[in-house]
Model the fold of this input.
Amino acid sequence: MRVVITGAGSINALGVGTAAFADGLRHGRCGIGALSLFDAAGYRSACAAEVRSLASPAWLPKAIARRASRSDLLALIAAREAVDAARLAGGTDVGIVIGATTGGMFGSEEQYRRRLGHLQPLRRSVMAATPVSTSADVLARLFGCQGPRLTVSTACSSGGNALGIAADWIRAGRATAVLCGGVDSLCRMTFSGFNALQALDTVPCRPFDRDRAGLSLGEGAAMFVLEDTERAQARGATVLAEFMGYGVSADAHHITQPRPDAAGALRAMQRALQESGVAPEEIDYVNAHGTATPLNDVLETRALKALLGPRAYDVPVSSTKSMVGHCLGAAGAIEALACVVALRGGFVPPTVNLKHADPECDLDYVPGHSRARSIRTALSNSYGFGGNNTSVVLRAWQ
Done:
């Protein structure tokens, strides 16, 4: 059974909506700047890819808006666009699977801060939005999705896994359509944690650059509607791209560091191609995990060389984290959407902030500016803490 994408929605530091995201990628805009969401004094880094002026949209029912966390709002805004684009109606056969890691942590932190400062009484309704599963719950409530529901939390591969599981459900007959994707918001917990690990750069991140010094955290959401081809065509839905397949592997090595032989990353890509029925020579573009950390960029480069062979030097590879930051649980979904945008728009997104080539990262990383190019098949990689590796394959619809 073929699975297609009939709706997509986006919100991140480049703007609200898929069109804004596509425009930002095409023009190589960097959404990473000074953090204003909370006080970053005392941290190693004070920059992030923040969604500015986030507020409850007018269409959101007050009963949901009252308890919605920052992550919930991001998910709701992206999902609204995806659902509207797909003309999806809820029902008992429509499922939801969301990748996430931070949940409503930011709101809980705010309540705790105000409570300690005796600024206001504790709002229990805000605390109820803390669990990482809450975004899937509010999406189901708003859109009437009564089918299977799941929250996936596999660190930075969560969003990619959500898409793969959604496709599995459709192929297994568990759902006829699935609202899926990834969401995460910035919060003090993750910001302080990555600072403590000395994993954040003090300037906007520089993937594959010889002077790279760490990642830049970001926030946002990307949501999709997946359904089988026959259902989509029968109801006259517009197909954005085909979800070919995905591959998953575990490093079984270290909580934060990737395997030094890159075997896990390679295995995830190989499994994705095998499930998709796609040969390595068919890959036209790779959206890399590309975190701008010293180890990841070198090892991902080696894994791509092992996968693609001599042709690796001819395939454009870029890290869109250089523009929207590392959005953790949302990263895999946001980067899958970058692939959809590239497939439909006929261009390769760039790696911005890449100024000085690293001899160990010697592939075509599309530095600085996007490139006009017809793309048929794209590969997107997401590698998470704990050695959670996921790769997805997407193809232009013809």
